[in-house]
Fold each of these.
Amino acid sequence: MSPLHDVLQQLSHSHLPWLVLTMAVYLVTLALYKRSRCHPLLIPVFPSVVIIVGVLLATDTPYATYQQGVQWLSLLIGPATVALAIPLYAQRARIYALWKPIAVALLVGCVVALLSAMGIAWALGGSWETLISLAPKSATIPIALPMAERFGGLPSLAAVAVAVTGISGCMLAPLLLRIVRSQDPAVEGFAQGLTAHAIGTARSIQINPTAGAFAALAMGLNGVLTALLMPLCVALFQKLP
């Protein structure tokens, strides 16, 4: 083997390079995203995932090694989530004024997300594990994975479904919002948080503070409602032939 290959192998089993690589890749893709004038196909999370996965495959690095290397970034998820309370508090008056349409949109969005995922998988002959794994795809990962595992799904497949949903939601959101001619940041943020969970919320925060607040609200409420309604949807599909 070449010396370069040996060096790559040694680096692949170290923790620090993965943290540096992840931050560097994100900064580069973020700069590319801004340079493209926020083109939906270039949202930072999408090319970042492609690059990181490519590096992991090229260096034969187990995901567990990468996960240990970026654990410090994972620790920041908690404080970042709590910090979402700040923009929510700033929008409390408008949230109270819009509680009826918020409640209706939340219920419809959550039910459609659950039933459509399970229904399409069932119609295509998917296994029970597949149905359960795809059901909570629109909830954030800390809720989706335990729910999928509880009812017999595969956490790994659920994680992939959540990631794909978030990325595709961010990509399609600008087009769909133009079709419905929405210019209200509250509506746009709530829609992205409801359908694209944390990824949609992060993008909404970058675009507009109001959109970010309503996206955070939708993400949190949808996670709770998904946990409440998923058992009912599972019981419904268990009765199907």
Amino acid sequence: MKVNATNSNQYLNNANQAKTAGEKALSNIAATRALSGVDGADMIIADSLLSQSNVLNQGIANANDAIGMLNIADSTLSNLTQSADRLNELSVRANNPALSDREQVMLRNEAQALTDSMNQSVANASFNGKNVFGGNMEFYTSSSSQNINLDQNSITGAISSLDINSQQSIQDFMSSINSMRADIGASQNALVENITNSLTQSVALRQAESGMRNDDVAVNMADKNQADMNLNAAILAQSHNANNLKLQLDRLLA
């Protein structure tokens, strides 16, 4: 004979539900990525959002490397310009007929030392072990690429043509260097703009992916505590129900 079997089953169901809820909360806390959904579509969407964000972040890293590389190139070219300024001064002085032969030789020796130093600066300008004047370079970011031509041979060739007896050669050199620096500045501005756009997109993608997750520790701990309370209540109710059943059976059998 069954007495209050329905209530007994209900208490058991409540206990099982509370236990399941507690286990889910613990699983969300422990999971690397606890997704709200349970079907494959949610997982595909979340993975796609995360993948897109990772690609953008790698593109940002590439752009930052490119900017660092171009900073070194621009700094080197700036030093070349300063040396060319000094050569221009020497050129004006060297074209003074009042100078002695000995003084002319001293000026030429200084000019030679300057050009040697300029060549050395170009040869030593490197980023991550690679010379920054490597010819045509294409920097790939997440959504685009940036091209710039920084050819070491063209720079060293221009340096070798410098002559303190020809101010025109010095002025032509400075003009070409300034043009190259302008290209570097334009490329850096484009890369900075790319970084800004990529950061905005990456944050939006991360927020969208985060919105699909259930990994808020505080929320999950509250859910776990509530599940424990529900489980304890179900157990107490079941115990109380069992005592009532025993009393009813005792009366029936008395």
